[in-house]
Structure formats: C-alpha cells, structure tokens
Write a structure and sequence with these properties.
This protein has 887 residues and is an alpha+beta fold. It is built from 19 helices and 32 strands. 19% of the residues lie in helices and 23% in strands. Strands 20, 22, 23, 25, 28, 29, 30 and 32 form an eight-stranded antiparallel sheet that branches.
C-alpha cells in the first residue's frame, strides 16, 4: 500500500487512506519479525494493542471512538479490523441517491449494490439480506428511529440488574448521565425534530391524539404510562407549558391552554429520530443524520495527528478489507483466553493483557464465536428478530379535520405510537405481554404521489428547487403506518430459533470456513402478537382517514381507490407478500435487527456473556451489539446498542473509585483543580489531569517526580488508587510512590554520581523510599540487575534487596498479578521506622528502616527538609486518583 493516497479512474482515496491502515502497517508496529521482513529498522518501543475490535461497523466504530477519548493522556492502543472497505463518509441518505441499499438474498453470496453480502445460509429464502461490508456498516443505512426500550421490555428476570441500574437512571452515582440518556444525546434523539414541523405535522398529531384518547386503537398504550419524549425527559429543567408548546410548534396556545400533562402526552407522539440539527424548511432532511463513520473519522485523524506521522506511536488504527476467520485460544492461569486472531491477511498475536471485542452483526458475531470457542449449548440460541408490517394509504387533505384551509405546503410528518398486547392462558388469566410500535410517516404529495418514506428520508431537495417546493399546493397526503413487534425470547432448548454452523461443507465461505446457518420461525405467541399489531395498524389508519375514502398503495402502486378504511384487512391481508397475492408483512430478518444469540446475564448456565459483555468462558473476549440483548423489545436496537457500547467502554477503562468518607483521612488530591495546584513537578515528564485522575507522562527527560508541596508528614497512613493501562510487555507501566524524601526544590543533600546531577527528581531517590509499581520488575541496567527481582516488583520497597524481618530487610510477600485497566489500591503505613505496604487490601511487604541508614527516610522531626510525598513518572502512563492521608 503506498504511503500516499491512490487514484482510481474517477476519485482520489483521501477518506480511505486518511482513516484506515493496512494490515501490514498495523503488524509492523507490534511484531519485530514483521519489521525485519518488511525491511524496516528494528525498534525497541514496539507495543501490542490493548483493545482489538473485530468489526468496524456501527458498534465497533462507536466503541473505538469512545475508548479513544477515554484514553486521553494515556497509552492504550486500539485496533479495529473491518472486513469491508471504506465506502461512505456519512449516512447514505445524506448524499445523493447512490443505489446502495440492501438487495434481496442471493444464494451465490456475492455482494449486491456494491457493499451488501450474505455471509450465511438460512431456512428462509425471503429474509436476511445480509451485512453491509463497509466501514460504518449498517449505521450508514438505518432509518433513524430510536425509541427507548420500556422497563417492561427489559425485565430483570432476563436482563442483569446491574445493567438496568446503569441504563435507566438520569444520573449515575458518580454524576455521569445514565447510559440511555448518554446514547440519546450522542445519536441526537434528545433534540427535537426540528425538520418535522408545520401544518401537516400538527394536524396529524392532533388527530392521532384525539383518536387515542377516545380509545380508537384498542391496544395502544396509555400515553400517561410512557416515558416523556427525550427532549422533555432529559431536559436540564422541568418543562413548562411554554416549553412544551414550543417543542410541539403550537403558537399561539389556545385559550384556555392545555394542561401540562396533556402537552407532555402529545409530545410522546413525536418521532424519536436520530438527527442532530435543524433544517431550513419543514420536511427538508438535515445533513447530519447519525452514523458511526464520523465518530471514527474524528478519532483516527486525532490519533494520527498525535502520533506525529509515526505508526508505532499511533494509538488507534483501523484496518479495512481484512476479514477475521478465527480466534485461537490458549488456557492459562486465568482460564481460556484469545491468544491469536487469524485473518485473511495473516495471523495477529494477542497479548495476555489485551481485550478482544467482537463487534460484527449478530449472526456473523455468533458464527465467529461458535467456530472459535465451540458450542456450549447457549451460543447461538435465543435468536430474535422483529415482526414488521406496512400499510400505505393516501387520503385527501379534507380527512385531516384540523388542517388549516390556508395551508400551502404539507411537507412531512413523523409520529410514533406504542402498543402492548396482553396474552392470556386458556383459563383467561394474564400470561405476559408483547410489545409493538408504529412508525408513522406522511408527506403531502400530488394525487399521483405514492412514497411518503422516500419524501421523508431519501429526497434531498436541490437548492434550485427550494422555493418551488415551499410554494407547492398539496392535494393529498400519503401515510405509511409501519408496525414493528417483538418476538418472544426463547429457551436454550429451542433449536428452531438459532444460529448454528452449517453442516454442509459444500457451503463453506470464500475463506474455506463454515458458514452460519440461520433458523428462525415465529411461535404461536409471535403470530398472535403480529395479528394484534396488524389489527391496531388498521385502527390507526382509520383515525387518519377521518371518515373519508382512501386509496391503498402497495410497492409504490395504487392497488385500490376510493375505498373505506375498514376494508384494509381485506385489501392487505395479515400475511406476507408473496406470489399468492398482496400482503403487508415483511420477512423475518429483513429489519437487520437480529438479536439475542450471545445474551448477557448473571447465570453462566442461562447466558453467554456477563453483565460486562464478556464471555463467561473466555477471559478476554467481549461482545457489542444487539447479540447481547436477552430480549429484543420492539425498538430499533441502535439506541440500546450505543448505550451498551458506552457502558462497556467505561468498564474497559473504568473511572477511579468514588471518594468515600474515611474517618481521619484528608484528601491531597481528589481530582479538583484546587488540589492539583498543591502539587509540583520536578525532573522529567509531567502529570496530566483527566477527569478525577492524574496520568504520568514521559517526555524523554528522565524520571520525574510529582510531589505535594504544602506539607511534610511524619507518621501517617497514605492511601491512593492507581491504574496500569499496560502492565506487561515492551515499555510497560513503571512508576512508584515516594515517601519521606527531602524537598526537591533544595540542593540534593546526598547526590549519587551515577545519577544525572540536574534532575531534581533524584532527590527523592537519594533521600526517600519508593514503593514500586512495576509488574515486569525491570532491573536497573546501569548495575546489571536482572528483570524479575522481588525488590523491583509492585508492592516492594524499591532496591531493598534482602528478604527478612530484620532492620534493613523487607518481608516481601506479594503474589498478586495486577490486571490491566483496573483500579488497584495502595495503603502505605509508616510509624517511626516501620513501613507496611498493603496492595488491594493484602499485605505486600513489611520493612524496618536500618538505624545505619541516616540519609533515606528521615522524618521531618529529624530532618526538617524531609517528610515529602510524591508520585513518579518513569515509563508508560500510570494513572493515579484519590490520594488521601491520615496523620
């Protein structure tokens, strides 16, 4: 691959080249043998990737971006491996129509419409159009509807309670927003639909509200029981009547004004669409519909800029056109873990501390898990999809009773209705509920118009036709009522709804590995819910008909004219569209919302992954995407999937523990700028603040010391938390906590000629004691010390080389192997000449200072210049937090 952009016949590959890397470019940053084979000079600073994300589609790209910005001032390296190329920089509906939408399933598995391929076989020849093989995946194709899962759609009998506790609250205990709100903010649902407004929207919303309040949709959920529209629910202040009127475009308010509850209920009918901006004219779709590609572009470009053009220092790399074939595993002290990733380009080693995140589509993620980890009777079960039906009608404008006669431009409308069906046992008692919802779109068109969704989602008006569009006189309104219902979750014993490996070796893929085989059949309860949803959709259509005759549309063609709305079930029967005649139901799997096959749960016998999205049986493998969902609900999985991505990113790079009251302890650093000002740097490097942490930075200037300057300490208990992004391997994290050293601002009272005379950090080395942080126990090369010595390991008093309990000896007993990306705690207790170090609550070493050592570790009562406390910069990027002391 050339180091510059490439030309095709028509274009220059600026986006692809500047966002993506090749497999070889990534490999030579971690493998010295690959560098030699490529003719590149040897380097001693090669470092493995800490996070390897398989799949650069919707959720893989979003996770990479989240990890990148959480790792600010840290050292983690992130790799994305995507099977397809870079195709689009943003949502396909934000650019001129390119004909890239999914085609129908094909037996030959060849890509359709440039990017779509079918990676599996299925028992259903109608459903499952396949995967979008491109960076961004399905996020560049989706429709944007993002309702939130209701509490009843995520029962704690199936979802881990810890996950629900994080998803639903407005604010988490540490002050961050709950993950549903974070997701709503990120994808744009929290914003009002500024491009959906005007006479048509208000008239349709009012007519629908009146019909629902009158009970005309028998299984519609009571609006008062539903969550508020995100713009209301997540507002920083309680919404007033005026706020709600503005949101709804009601100006002026009628007299007397509606109650605040009535306006809140009306706002719940607004479509929850993932668009982050305001259009210039009603119905003109803005050019910033959410997709994951812009997130990835921003993160990879920032990574490139910070690397200075050096790929070895590039902390985020996205490798395109590299299909992952297999994950090889080994068994070590921690159990089964991924040790190698087999790709079409070669084999990629996985370091012991690395995390591998599978972020492919549900079916392809399941295939990879089955072929890599084997079947345990749970992987692949509980396959879920959505039940989907469509009703398209055309009504005269007279059908909308509150539409002003003066209205000229009926551009677009988008509304949302939630429904719930009560199942019953044979004896008539309740037997659970099933959920569905309606996505209602409408466009004011001429009498010959037939496609409201195209008007809403695909048509980007040319600037030259703006005024003409604005002044058009509409005569009819085309309305689409799209129903989406949930399939019920299945038991592991239900082999009829599952993803397995295809037993037919003749169906192996182009990499000679077994394809997945998809089995999906609706149950009797699924069919009952589907019938209830279709009945309700006809009731919604009847509300909009307003007693007028309507036309019925199917596949863009008018199939019935001037008919009563009560005839809809006859014209569009409750069945699939097939050769036997018109129907309204889409095939299972055509929504691309497959879910459930690697569901999360607390019980390893009933789930595949745990509450942190990690496989129960594989210590370093994780999943993102709707494959995690134990239940599917009726909403598009985007909002929940992004919420779980953000939650996983926070767990993979966790915040430090929250400060808790500890009697007698005073904080020296709690994350605040005021306390940070009490610390001063000496020597090389620096400490960078990030959130509630400070992170060690190196700049090539030798070791550095960050010391607390306002006070010196005699006897004390010092507590702090620290995190190691990269505890093992090349350039691993190496730091320490210095105690009882002299003031680095004064001349060194005990200089050592082997140390740099102009580095004030060595004052702490010469006059204090260091409690070491180094999982590799690196030896001092100046003195020929080997790696692995106990006195160089985490928890030890550094360079106290004699084991024992006597003066000048340390009784070192630490056996912990510290995990990467986890917060660990130190407690350092000093009483006169006795030192005790506790690591994660366990005693790591005990040391008594020798009386003959008159230079190091003097308390300030003996040496008024001594008694300082500090943190070291050496190698890596150790993070510190919650530094507090008791005297």
């Amino acid at each position: 691959m050339p180091l510059t952009t490439e030309y095709t016949t028509f274009t220059r590959d600026v986006f692809g080249r500047f966002v993506c890397n090749t497999y070889d470019e990534a490999l030579v940053t971690i493998d010295p043998n690959a560098r030699t084979a490529a003719g590149l000079p040897a380097r001693g600073d090669l470092r493995a990737f800490d996070f390897i994300i398989i799949g650069g589609g919707t959720f893989g790209a979003a996770l990479a971006e989240h990890l990148w910005f959480r790792s600010t001032n840290r050292s983690e390296r992130i790799l994305i491996i995507e099977g397809g190329p870079f195709v689009l920089p943003e949502h396909v509906q934000n650019v001129p129509v390119l004909g890239l939408n999914a085609g129908s399933p094909r037996k030959d598995h060849l890509p359709q419409n440039e990017v779509w391929g079918l990676a599996w076989n299925s028992s259903d020849p109608v459903g499952f159009p396949g995967l979008a093989y491109c960076v961004g995946g399905r996020s560049v194709f989706w429709g944007g509807w993002s309702p939130r899962l209701l509490d009843s759609e995520v029962p704690n009998t199936r979802w881990p309670q810890a996950v629900l506790d994080d998803l639903t609250p407005t604010n988490l205990p540490d002050g961050r927003k709950g993950y549903f709100r974070q997701s709503s903010d990120q994808i744009g649902v929290t914003q009002t639909n500024d491009f959906i407004f005007g006479d048509l929207q208000r008239a349709m919303r009012k007519q629908l509200l009146d019909g629902l309040n009158a009970g005309q949709v028998t299984e519609a959920m009571d609006l008062a029981t539903l969550p508020d529209h995100p713009a209301v629910q997540y507002g920083n202040t309680l919404a007033t009547v005026d706020d709600l009127a503005k949101l709804l475009g009601i100006d002026p308010l009628p007299a007397p004004p509606p109650s605040i509850q009535a306006l809140r209920n009306e706002a719940k009918l607004e479509a929850p669409l993932a668009v982050q901006g305001q259009a210039g004219h009603a119905g003109f779709f803005p050019f910033n519909k959410f997709s994951a590609v812009p997130l990835l572009i921003k993160a990879t470009r920032e990574s490139s800029n910070k690397s200075g053009g050096d790929d070895v220092n590039k902390r985020l790399m996205a490798v395109a056109r590299c299909h992952v074939i297999q994950l090889n595993t080994v068994v070590d002290a921690g159990g089964q873990r991924v040790s190698e990733i087999v790709t079409e380009r070669g084999r990629l080693p996985v370091s012991p501390d690395a995390k591998v995140i599978i972020a492919l589509g549900t079916i392809e993620s399941t295939r990879l898990a089955l072929s890599s980890f084997g079947s345990d009777g749970r992987i692949g079960r509980n396959l879920l999809a959505h039940l989907r039906s469509n009703v398209d009608i055309r009504v005269p404008r007279a059908a909308l009773s509150t539409l002003p006669a003066t209205a000229k431009a009926l551009e677009a409308a988008a509304l949302f209705v939630k429904g719930q069906h009560q199942f019953k046992k044979p004896d008539g008692t309740a037997d659970g509920v099933g959920h569905f919802h309606f996505q209602i779109t409408a466009s004011g068109l001429s009498a010959s118009g037939t496609d409201s969704e195209a008007e809403l989602f695909k048509k980007i008006p040319d600037i030259d036709t703006f005024d003409a569009h604005k002044n058009a006189t509409d005569t009819d309104v085309v309305i689409t009522v799209r129903g989406i219902g949930e399939m019920e979750p299945k038991q592991d014993s239900d082999f009829g709804n599952s993803v397995t490996l295809d037993l037919d070796s003749q169906q192996n893929d182009e990499f000679q590995t077994r394809r997945a085989f998809v089995n999906l059949q609706p149950s009797a309860r699924d069919m009952e819910l589907w019938n209830a949803m279709d009945k309700a959709s006809d009731e919604v259509a009847k509300i909009f008909a307003g007693g007028q005759k309507i036309d019925v549309i199917k596949n863009g063609q008018v199939i019935a004219t001037n008919v009563d709305a009560s005839q809809l079930s006859t014209i569009l029967p409750f069945k699939p569209s097939d050769a036997s005649g018109p129907g309204r139901r889409d095939g299972l799997g055509t929504t691309h919302h497959e879910a459930g096959t690697m569901r999360m749960g607390d019980d390893p016998n009933k789930s595949v992954t745990d509450a942190d999205c990690r496989f129960h049986r594989v210590s370093n493998a994780y999943v993102v995407g709707p494959a995690l969902f134990p239940t599917i609900g009726s909403p598009n999985p985007m909002l929940t999937g992004i919420a779980l991505v953000r939650r996983l990113g926070d767990h993979l790079m966790p915040e430090p523990p929250l400060p808790t009251p500890e009697p007698g302890f005073t904080y020296l650093f709690d994350g605040s700028a005021a306390q940070l000002a009490n610390w001063q740097m000496a020597g090389g490097g620096s400490f960078a603040p990030f959130g509630r942490t400070i992170i060690a930075q190196q700049d090539g200037g030798g070791i550095g010391l960050f010391f607390y300057k306002p006070q010196q300490f005699e006897n004390f208990i010092l507590r702090l938390d620290f995190l190691l992004p990269h505890p093992r391997g090349n350039n691993n994290d190496n730091s320490g906590v210095f105690v009882r050293f002299c003031d680095p601002r004064l001349p060194d009272p005990a200089p050592n000629p082997v140390d740099p005379p102009n580095n004030a950090a060595f004052v702490a080395v010469h006059t204090g004691f260091e409690i070491q942080i180094d999982e590799e126990a690196r030896g001092d090369t100046r003195f020929g010390e080997p790696d692995g010595s106990f006195f160089s390991r985490t928890g030890a008093i550094y360079k106290i080389k004699t084991l024992g309990t006597g003066p000048g000896q340390q009784d070192y007993k630490n056996t912990q192997n510290l995990a990467a990306e986890r917060w660990h705690s130190y407690e350092i207790e000093i009483n006169n000449q006795d030192y005790i170090v506790r690591l994660n609550g366990q005693e790591a070493t005990r040391f008594t200072r020798a009386a003959s050592d008159t230079v190091r570790g003097n308390p300030p009562s003996v040496d008024p210049k001594s008694g300082f406390i500090g943190l070291q910069t050496h190698t890596g990027n150790v993070a510190f937090a919650n530094v507090r002391i008791k005297t």
